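Give me the fold.
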Amino acid sequence: MVSELAGTLTKQRIDVEKLRNEFFTPSKTPVPVKFGTSGHRGELGAGFCALHAKAIAQAVARIHQEQHIMGAMLVGGDTRLVSRDTANICAEVLAANGITVVLPDIPVPTPVFSFEILSGRVCACLNGTASHNPPQDMGLKYNPSTGGPADSALTGLIEKYANEYMAHPEQIKSMSLDEARAKNLVQNADIITPYVTALAKLIDFQKIAQAPLKFAVHPLGGASLAFYKAIKEKYNLTNLDIVSTEQDPTFYFIPIDHDGKIRMDPSSKYPMSPLIKYVESGDYDFAGASDPDSDRFGCATPKGGLISPNHALCVMADYLVRHHKISGATAVGRTLGTTALLDRIASGYQLGLDEVNVGFKYFVPGLSQRKYVLAGEESAGMSVSGWTTEKDGMFAVLLLMEIAAMEGDIGELYNKLTAVHGTPFYTRVDVPTDDATKARVKSMKAVDFAGVTQVAGEKVLRVRDTDGIKIYLQASWLLVRPSGTENILKIYAETFVSEEHLHMLIEEAQKLLK
């Protein structure tokens, strides 16, 4: 049904001039600054405009001054319509506050912000991106000295200060870029060479180059393009093709997603359809992609088709352990909605398993302490200890290429894991709802389910209420989380029993919420 619907929808090109005008002069009152799991985000205009960028930059400058945070800040963004404008605005505000700004003249991938912070070359960053959201959306993220997404206490303070400046914009400082450059407060930098060079510490490029396979990568119009080009050249990957070099802020060349929107999501079969065709036709043995800010990954193979992020995470975790890639790590990390097959793999290698709330920021302490062989989320984000404390889609694609070169088709490797640990059946369903229901579900606690002893024929083992409601069963689990931005309830479920049992879990979840 979804695929039939997608085939009847008409792609709509965004109005670039109108959206640029909305960014600089919104036709409606801008909404307050609100940081989600990784920054403030909204549609250009009232949802995200120049004033949001100025207010957030001034808030960050104030925090740096109050907390005596010293050092330069890296400022940039991806290839979206106003990413460069947003970066320039932030640089002008930070410079006016006496903060030195590194402002690269190319788009900057999200993991590279983290890499530069962890290298010690900068102390923090402001990153203009809305990830793989539709092209009319925009956002701004702040990463502190940990290199990862800011924690809730810090984002709460940024919100508080930024909203004060939204109400009193005359308090925001700013100077022109020309003046800032003349005072050496804004500088350019090579951000490609250090990152691309460091990759060789964890990725075996020689194995990739020597493999009798053909690899394809697609930057999906994003910031990874220059980096993939540099990787291909530096490591002489003659068997790697960058199959698209197009960069267009409308992203009109990306196939529409299931709902008719352009969404540069590397884990969705619709925008990934050209890559799926490449491997189905036999032109390539592996095709990978990362989204516009390069923090998420996707891949397709001849025998696996489009590989689910959950499946890829399992294959990567198993490979990293067996090949001793991450020295000293003692655990696997995953978010609440990510497959429990990772638990079984970790247990098989006598590793710990950390289950964290949704949001990569919850992995930052463990990654900083070099605890994780792999930290991953079902929405296609991952990193490893000793690398970045942000999600890195480029690293994931390259690691999967190495695995394919060394051991074969990713789809087959996943099937080998399920033959040992059991086959999970997994889904996520978005249920339309209203504000009142969202608020009610958000307020639910584990104690509210004390009388629920059985779900879908399985005994309830425990209930967790730290991020929605998650019910753990004998061979299954289900999770209900209200969306932070839309009127939907996200219902996740997984079972090692059967596909039929998975449907029962979804039905039971909806009954429990009534």
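The longest strand covers residues 425-432.
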